[in-house]
Amino acid sequence: ETGVTQTPRHLVMGMTNKKSLKCEQHLGHNAMYWYKQSAKKPLELMFVYSLEERVENNSVPSRFSPECPNSSHLFLHLHTLQPEDSALYLCASSQYASIRQSTDTQYFGPGTRLTVL
Amino acid sequence: AQKITQTQPGMFVQEKEAVTLDCTYDTSDPSYGLFWYKQPSSGEMIFLIYQGSYDQQNATEGRYSLNFQKARKSANLVISASQLGDSAMYFCAMRGEGGQFYFGTGTSLTVIP
Questions:
Q1: What average pLDDT does this structure show over A87-108?
Q2: Given an 8 Å threshold on Cβ–Cβ distance, is B99 in contact with A96?
Q3: C-alpha pair distances (Å), A27 with each of A5, A96, B26, B32, B79
Q4: Res. A68: pLDDT tops 70
């Protein structure tokens, strides 16, 4: 496997369900990110992890709970979501969370398209 | 405040022609990086090209080139010899000294046969 992988690719859930999104990176990077992409809106950064420690949380509702057990894996646990949470959830990784090298870029996974009924 | 602006919600280009996708940015950081990503309908964001704020020359990667005008704070993407597979959303992004990436709202490009 290469790059950044995400599972599942599609998820439909009810408002009372609990589900988890999984992300795995095979690039040896130290930073991982969760983004939310809604139609006609810029990407919204949700969480940033650097070396398994959360360094940024952009005021995301508590119904989204991230987990980073090691530098290669990132989860997003979902519970009691709302219909407006339906979106494409993208995971990304980069070498560092802070800018040490100007060429350091983010590489993205294919995303999980989430629909909340 | 950091900001990326893409003013073209949709663009059309004839196959084999060149197209320019506009991007302007706003930052007070002396050092920053500029990126372009392609997002096909499948959803994955594919990294295309990078330009550093101190780079003297415009970046090029195959058919992609970045027209970097620092004084105007613009970083336009030029795609030469468009192909049908270039039809996708294109996002401009910037990374400032704080490390966070900022994305524009994207431009939808359609290549016409």
A1: 83
A2: yes
A3: 11, 12, 31, 23, 28
A4: yes
Give the distance from CA B45 to its chain's centroid: 12
For B76-101, letters b (16+ CB in 10 Å) and e give: bbbbeebeeebbbbbbbbbbbbebbb
32-91 in chain B: CB under 8 A from chain A: 32-33, 35, 37, 42-47, 50, 52-54, 91
Min Cα–Cα distance to chain B from A63, Å: 23
- Kindly report the backbone phi and psi dihedral angles of residue A74, in degrees, each rounded to the nearest multiple of 5, phi listed first: -145, 135
- What tokens were used for A111? 């995303």
CA-based R_g, chain B, Å = 13
Confidence of residue A97 (pLDDT cuts 50, 70, 90): confident
- Can you name the residues that pair with B46 across neighbouring β-strands? B38
Query: Is residue A103 within 8 angstroms of chain B, CB to CB?
Result: yes
Top pLDDT among A51 and A100 is at: A51
Dist CA B100 CA A97 (whole Å): 8
pLDDT tens for each residue of A1-56: 579 999 999 999 988 889 999 999 999 999 999 999 998 788 999 999 988 788 77
The answer to whether A3 and A60 are in contact (CB under 8 A) is no
